[in-house]
Protein backbone atom coordinates (compact mmCIF):
# COMPACT_ATOMS: atom_id res chain seq x y z
CA UNK A 1 0.00 0.00 0.00
CA UNK A 2 3.02 2.30 0.03
CA UNK A 3 2.48 3.54 -3.51
CA UNK A 4 4.97 3.80 -6.32
CA UNK A 5 7.61 5.94 -4.72
CA UNK A 6 11.05 4.97 -3.42
CA UNK A 7 10.63 3.08 -0.11
CA UNK A 8 13.81 4.77 1.08
CA UNK A 9 12.09 8.15 0.76
CA UNK A 10 12.88 8.80 4.44
CA UNK A 11 16.55 8.98 3.55
CA UNK A 12 15.90 11.89 1.22
CA UNK A 13 15.16 14.33 4.00
CA UNK A 14 18.06 13.07 6.09
CA UNK A 15 20.35 14.65 3.52
CA UNK A 16 18.36 17.89 3.70
CA UNK A 17 20.58 20.96 3.58
CA UNK A 18 18.60 22.41 6.49
CA UNK A 19 20.23 20.97 9.65
CA UNK A 20 17.06 21.37 11.69
CA UNK A 21 14.97 19.35 9.26
CA UNK A 22 17.76 16.77 8.87
CA UNK A 23 17.79 16.31 12.66
CA UNK A 24 14.02 15.77 12.64
CA UNK A 25 14.33 13.15 9.89
CA UNK A 26 17.10 11.37 11.78
CA UNK A 27 15.11 11.29 15.04
CA UNK A 28 12.09 9.80 13.29
CA UNK A 29 14.09 6.78 12.13
CA UNK A 30 13.65 5.51 15.72
CA UNK A 31 9.88 6.11 15.77
CA UNK A 32 7.95 3.03 16.95
CA UNK A 33 4.35 3.06 15.69
CA UNK A 34 2.99 0.52 18.16
CA UNK A 35 4.48 2.36 21.15
CA UNK A 36 2.99 5.62 19.86
CA UNK A 37 -0.42 3.97 19.49
CA UNK A 38 -0.33 2.53 23.01
CA UNK A 39 0.77 5.87 24.47
CA UNK A 40 -2.01 7.84 22.82
CA UNK A 41 -4.85 5.56 21.67
CA UNK A 42 -5.03 2.91 24.40
CA UNK A 43 -6.35 3.84 27.88
CA UNK A 44 -6.21 6.24 29.61
CA UNK A 45 -6.13 8.53 26.54
CA UNK A 46 -7.92 5.88 24.52
CA UNK A 47 -10.74 5.56 27.07
CA UNK A 48 -13.72 7.03 25.20
CA UNK A 49 -16.27 6.40 27.96
CA UNK A 50 -15.90 9.91 29.41
CA UNK A 51 -17.19 12.74 27.18
CA UNK A 52 -14.51 14.97 28.70
CA UNK A 53 -11.69 12.86 27.26
CA UNK A 54 -9.43 13.94 24.41
CA UNK A 55 -10.55 11.10 22.12
CA UNK A 56 -14.26 12.01 22.17
CA UNK A 57 -13.36 15.69 21.76
CA UNK A 58 -11.38 15.02 18.56
CA UNK A 59 -14.08 12.76 17.13
CA UNK A 60 -16.75 15.37 17.93
CA UNK A 61 -14.81 18.14 16.20
CA UNK A 62 -14.60 16.07 13.02
CA UNK A 63 -18.18 14.75 13.14
CA UNK A 64 -19.70 18.18 13.78
CA UNK A 65 -17.74 19.77 10.94
CA UNK A 66 -18.74 17.12 8.41
CA UNK A 67 -22.35 17.31 9.66
CA UNK A 68 -22.52 20.89 8.32
CA UNK A 69 -22.50 19.41 4.81
CA UNK A 70 -20.01 22.04 3.67
CA UNK A 71 -16.96 19.78 3.58
CA UNK A 72 -17.48 17.24 0.82
CA UNK A 73 -16.26 16.36 -2.65
CA UNK A 74 -14.48 13.66 -4.59
CA UNK A 75 -10.90 13.58 -3.30
CA UNK A 76 -9.47 13.99 0.20
CA UNK A 77 -5.81 13.72 1.26
CA UNK A 78 -4.82 12.93 4.84
CA UNK A 79 -1.47 14.62 5.44
CA UNK A 80 0.94 12.74 7.69
CA UNK A 81 -1.51 10.04 8.73
CA UNK A 82 0.99 8.39 11.06
CA UNK A 83 -0.25 4.93 12.12
CA UNK A 84 -3.81 6.19 12.87
CA UNK A 85 -7.16 6.06 11.05
CA UNK A 86 -9.60 7.66 13.54
CA UNK A 87 -9.21 11.07 11.87
CA UNK A 88 -11.05 9.77 8.78
CA UNK A 89 -13.99 8.01 10.42
CA UNK A 90 -16.39 10.90 9.80
CA UNK A 91 -14.71 12.01 6.56
CA UNK A 92 -15.18 8.74 4.71
CA UNK A 93 -18.92 9.24 4.14
CA UNK A 94 -18.24 12.48 2.25
CA UNK A 95 -15.31 11.58 -0.08
CA UNK A 96 -15.07 8.67 -2.48
CA UNK A 97 -11.29 8.86 -3.04
CA UNK A 98 -9.11 9.12 0.07
CA UNK A 99 -5.31 9.20 0.03
CA UNK A 100 -3.43 8.49 3.25
CA UNK A 101 0.20 9.59 3.54
CA UNK A 102 3.19 9.36 5.83
CA UNK A 103 6.91 10.12 5.76
CA UNK A 104 7.79 6.83 7.50
CA UNK A 105 7.51 3.46 5.82
CA UNK A 106 6.83 1.82 9.22
CA UNK A 107 3.70 3.96 9.58
CA UNK A 108 2.56 3.18 6.05
CA UNK A 109 3.03 -0.51 6.86
CA UNK A 110 0.98 -0.15 10.06
CA UNK A 111 -1.84 1.48 8.08
CA UNK A 112 -1.66 -1.33 5.54
CA UNK A 113 -2.23 -3.95 8.25
CA UNK A 114 -5.51 -2.27 9.25
CA UNK A 115 -6.65 -1.54 5.70
CA UNK A 116 -6.11 -5.19 4.71
CA UNK A 117 -7.61 -6.49 8.00
CA UNK A 118 -4.46 -8.46 8.70
CA UNK A 119 -3.66 -10.20 12.01
CA UNK A 120 -1.87 -7.90 14.41
CA UNK A 121 -3.49 -4.70 13.13
CA UNK A 122 -4.35 -2.13 15.78
CA UNK A 123 -7.97 -2.39 16.93
CA UNK A 124 -9.79 0.88 16.17
CA UNK A 125 -13.28 -0.53 16.79
CA UNK A 126 -13.84 1.51 19.98
CA UNK A 127 -13.17 4.69 17.96
CA UNK A 128 -15.38 3.50 15.10
CA UNK A 129 -18.20 2.74 17.54
CA UNK A 130 -17.88 6.17 19.14
CA UNK A 131 -17.87 7.96 15.79
CA UNK A 132 -21.10 6.13 14.86
CA UNK A 133 -22.61 7.07 18.22
CA UNK A 134 -21.79 10.78 17.75
CA UNK A 135 -23.06 10.85 14.18
CA UNK A 136 -26.32 9.19 15.16
CA UNK A 137 -27.12 7.78 11.72
CA UNK A 138 -27.76 4.24 12.94
CA UNK A 139 -24.67 2.96 11.16
CA UNK A 140 -22.81 -0.01 12.65
CA UNK A 141 -19.13 0.31 13.39
CA UNK A 142 -18.49 -2.57 11.00
CA UNK A 143 -20.20 -0.63 8.19
CA UNK A 144 -18.16 2.45 9.10
CA UNK A 145 -14.87 0.58 8.91
CA UNK A 146 -15.89 -1.17 5.70
CA UNK A 147 -16.63 2.17 4.04
CA UNK A 148 -13.35 3.71 5.17
CA UNK A 149 -11.34 0.72 3.92
CA UNK A 150 -13.13 0.88 0.57
CA UNK A 151 -12.53 4.57 0.10
CA UNK A 152 -8.82 4.68 1.01
CA UNK A 153 -7.41 4.18 -2.47
CA UNK A 154 -3.70 4.56 -1.73
CA UNK A 155 -1.10 5.12 1.01
CA UNK A 156 1.77 7.28 -0.22
CA UNK A 157 5.06 8.73 1.06
CA UNK A 158 5.04 12.44 1.82
CA UNK A 159 7.52 15.10 2.87
CA UNK A 160 5.76 18.28 3.98
CA UNK A 161 9.05 20.19 3.88
CA UNK A 162 9.28 19.84 0.10
CA UNK A 163 7.50 22.35 -2.16
CA UNK A 164 5.85 19.33 -3.83
CA UNK A 165 5.09 17.21 -0.75
CA UNK A 166 3.94 14.18 -2.76
CA UNK A 167 6.71 14.50 -5.33
CA UNK A 168 6.56 15.65 -8.96
CA UNK A 169 4.44 12.75 -10.25
CA UNK A 170 1.89 12.06 -7.53
CA UNK A 171 -0.47 9.11 -7.73
CA UNK A 172 -3.08 11.12 -5.80
CA UNK A 173 -5.70 13.09 -7.75
CA UNK A 174 -4.80 16.78 -7.50
CA UNK A 175 -5.89 19.28 -6.47
CA UNK A 176 -7.83 17.70 -3.61
CA UNK A 177 -11.20 18.97 -2.45
CA UNK A 178 -10.14 18.70 1.20
CA UNK A 179 -7.15 18.00 3.41
CA UNK A 180 -7.06 16.47 6.88
CA UNK A 181 -3.95 16.59 9.03
CA UNK A 182 -3.58 15.50 12.65
CA UNK A 183 -0.52 15.99 14.85
CA UNK A 184 1.79 16.28 11.88
CA UNK A 185 3.05 19.76 11.04
CA UNK A 186 4.09 20.84 14.55
CA UNK A 187 5.65 17.41 15.18
CA UNK A 188 8.00 17.52 12.18
CA UNK A 189 8.96 21.21 12.15
CA UNK A 190 12.05 22.43 13.99
CA UNK A 191 10.67 25.97 14.40
CA UNK A 192 7.60 28.11 13.76
CA UNK A 193 8.85 29.36 10.38
CA UNK A 194 9.26 25.74 9.23
CA UNK A 195 5.72 24.98 10.48
CA UNK A 196 4.36 27.88 8.43
CA UNK A 197 6.28 26.79 5.30
CA UNK A 198 5.07 23.20 5.68
CA UNK A 199 1.50 24.49 5.85
CA UNK A 200 2.08 26.48 2.68
CA UNK A 201 3.52 23.39 0.95
CA UNK A 202 0.51 21.18 1.73
CA UNK A 203 -1.85 23.99 0.73
CA UNK A 204 -0.61 23.63 -2.87
CA UNK A 205 -2.36 20.22 -2.89
CA UNK A 206 -5.76 21.81 -2.15
CA UNK A 207 -8.09 23.45 -4.65
CA UNK A 208 -9.19 27.07 -4.13
CA UNK A 209 -12.31 27.01 -1.97
CA UNK A 210 -11.28 23.62 -0.55
CA UNK A 211 -11.24 22.82 3.15
CA UNK A 212 -8.48 21.95 5.62
CA UNK A 213 -9.25 20.21 8.91
CA UNK A 214 -6.23 20.45 11.19
CA UNK A 215 -5.74 18.91 14.63
CA UNK A 216 -2.53 19.40 16.56
CA UNK A 217 -0.77 19.80 19.87
CA UNK A 218 -0.75 23.07 21.81
CA UNK A 219 2.42 24.16 23.60
CA UNK A 220 4.13 20.78 23.27
CA UNK A 221 7.93 20.49 22.98
CA UNK A 222 8.50 16.70 22.98
CA UNK A 223 6.81 13.30 22.88
CA UNK A 224 7.87 9.67 23.13
CA UNK A 225 7.36 6.83 20.65
CA UNK A 226 9.28 3.89 22.09
CA UNK A 227 13.01 4.58 21.97
CA UNK A 228 12.40 7.79 20.06
CA UNK A 229 12.08 11.13 21.84
CA UNK A 230 10.78 13.55 19.25
CA UNK A 231 10.98 17.34 19.38
CA UNK A 232 7.87 19.41 18.65
CA UNK A 233 7.60 23.12 17.87
CA UNK A 234 5.38 24.58 20.61
CA UNK A 235 2.49 26.51 19.05
CA UNK A 236 -0.29 28.58 20.60
CA UNK A 237 -3.87 29.00 19.39
CA UNK A 238 -3.02 32.44 18.01
CA UNK A 239 0.08 31.16 16.19
CA UNK A 240 -2.06 28.49 14.51
CA UNK A 241 -4.62 31.11 13.50
CA UNK A 242 -1.91 33.41 12.14
CA UNK A 243 -0.26 30.60 10.16
CA UNK A 244 -3.59 29.74 8.55
CA UNK A 245 -4.33 33.34 7.60
CA UNK A 246 -0.80 33.79 6.22
CA UNK A 247 -1.26 30.51 4.33
CA UNK A 248 -4.25 31.91 2.47
CA UNK A 249 -7.13 30.50 4.52
CA UNK A 250 -10.30 31.84 6.03
CA UNK A 251 -10.56 30.35 9.53
CA UNK A 252 -14.08 28.93 9.84
CA UNK A 253 -13.66 27.39 13.30
CA UNK A 254 -10.85 27.13 15.85
CA UNK A 255 -11.37 25.22 19.08
CA UNK A 256 -9.03 24.22 21.89
CA UNK A 257 -9.01 21.45 24.46
CA UNK A 258 -7.00 21.58 27.70
CA UNK A 259 -5.38 18.26 28.55
CA UNK A 260 -6.61 17.25 32.03
CA UNK A 261 -4.14 16.13 34.69
CA UNK A 262 -5.12 12.45 34.52
CA UNK A 263 -4.25 12.38 30.80
CA UNK A 264 -0.81 13.94 31.31
CA UNK A 265 0.83 10.55 31.49
CA UNK A 266 4.51 11.38 30.99
CA UNK A 267 4.64 10.38 27.33
CA UNK A 268 4.80 14.06 26.28
CA UNK A 269 4.48 17.58 27.70
CA UNK A 270 1.37 18.55 25.70
CA UNK A 271 -0.78 21.27 27.31
CA UNK A 272 -3.77 20.89 25.01
CA UNK A 273 -5.07 20.21 21.52
CA UNK A 274 -6.39 22.51 18.80
CA UNK A 275 -8.90 21.86 16.05
CA UNK A 276 -9.08 24.19 13.05
CA UNK A 277 -11.48 24.22 10.12
CA UNK A 278 -10.10 26.51 7.44
CA UNK A 279 -11.15 27.24 3.87
CA UNK A 280 -8.65 28.10 1.16
CA UNK A 281 -9.45 31.48 -0.32
CA UNK A 282 -9.91 32.10 -4.02
CA UNK A 283 -12.08 30.45 -6.62
CA UNK A 284 -11.26 27.42 -8.70
CA UNK A 285 -10.11 28.26 -12.23
Automatic annotation (TrEMBL):
<dbReference type="GO" id="GO:0032259">
    <property type="term" value="P:methylation"/>
</dbReference>
<feature type="region of interest" description="Disordered">
    <location>
        <begin position="1"/>
        <end position="21"/>
    </location>
</feature>
<dbReference type="InterPro" id="IPR000940">
    <property type="entry name" value="NNMT_TEMT_trans"/>
</dbReference>
<keyword id="KW-0127">Catecholamine biosynthesis</keyword>
<feature type="binding site">
    <location>
        <position position="36"/>
    </location>
    <ligand>
        <name>S-adenosyl-L-methionine</name>
    </ligand>
</feature>
<dbReference type="Pfam" id="PF01234">
    <property type="entry name" value="NNMT_PNMT_TEMT"/>
</dbReference>
<comment type="pathway">
    <text>Catecholamine biosynthesis; (R)-adrenaline biosynthesis; (R)-adrenaline from (R)-noradrenaline: step 1/1.</text>
</comment>
<protein>
    <recommendedName>
        <fullName>Phenylethanolamine N-methyltransferase</fullName>
        <ecNumber>2.1.1.28</ecNumber>
    </recommendedName>
</protein>
<dbReference type="GO" id="GO:0042423">
    <property type="term" value="P:catecholamine biosynthetic process"/>
</dbReference>
<feature type="binding site">
    <location>
        <begin position="159"/>
        <end position="160"/>
    </location>
    <ligand>
        <name>S-adenosyl-L-methionine</name>
    </ligand>
</feature>
<feature type="binding site">
    <location>
        <position position="41"/>
    </location>
    <ligand>
        <name>S-adenosyl-L-methionine</name>
    </ligand>
</feature>
<feature type="binding site">
    <location>
        <position position="102"/>
    </location>
    <ligand>
        <name>S-adenosyl-L-methionine</name>
    </ligand>
</feature>
<dbReference type="InterPro" id="IPR025820">
    <property type="entry name" value="NNMT/PNMT/TEMT_CS"/>
</dbReference>
<keyword id="KW-0489">Methyltransferase</keyword>
<feature type="binding site">
    <location>
        <begin position="80"/>
        <end position="81"/>
    </location>
    <ligand>
        <name>S-adenosyl-L-methionine</name>
    </ligand>
</feature>
<keyword id="KW-0808">Transferase</keyword>
<comment type="similarity">
    <text>Belongs to the class I-like SAM-binding methyltransferase superfamily. NNMT/PNMT/TEMT family.</text>
</comment>
<dbReference type="GO" id="GO:0004603">
    <property type="term" value="F:phenylethanolamine N-methyltransferase activity"/>
</dbReference>
<dbReference type="InterPro" id="IPR053384">
    <property type="entry name" value="SAM-dep_methyltransferase"/>
</dbReference>
<feature type="binding site">
    <location>
        <position position="86"/>
    </location>
    <ligand>
        <name>S-adenosyl-L-methionine</name>
    </ligand>
</feature>
<feature type="binding site">
    <location>
        <position position="107"/>
    </location>
    <ligand>
        <name>S-adenosyl-L-methionine</name>
    </ligand>
</feature>
<dbReference type="GO" id="GO:0005829">
    <property type="term" value="C:cytosol"/>
</dbReference>
<dbReference type="InterPro" id="IPR029063">
    <property type="entry name" value="SAM-dependent_MTases_sf"/>
</dbReference>
<keyword id="KW-0949">S-adenosyl-L-methionine</keyword>
Amino acid sequence: MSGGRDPNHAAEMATDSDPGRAAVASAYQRFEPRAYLLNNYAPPRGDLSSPDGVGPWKLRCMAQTFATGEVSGQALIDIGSGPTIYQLLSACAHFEDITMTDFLEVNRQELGLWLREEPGAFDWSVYSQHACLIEGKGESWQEKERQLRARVKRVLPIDVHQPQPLGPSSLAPLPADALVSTFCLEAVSPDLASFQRALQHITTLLRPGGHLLLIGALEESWYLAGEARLSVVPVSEEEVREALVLGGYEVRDLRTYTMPAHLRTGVDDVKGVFFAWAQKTGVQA
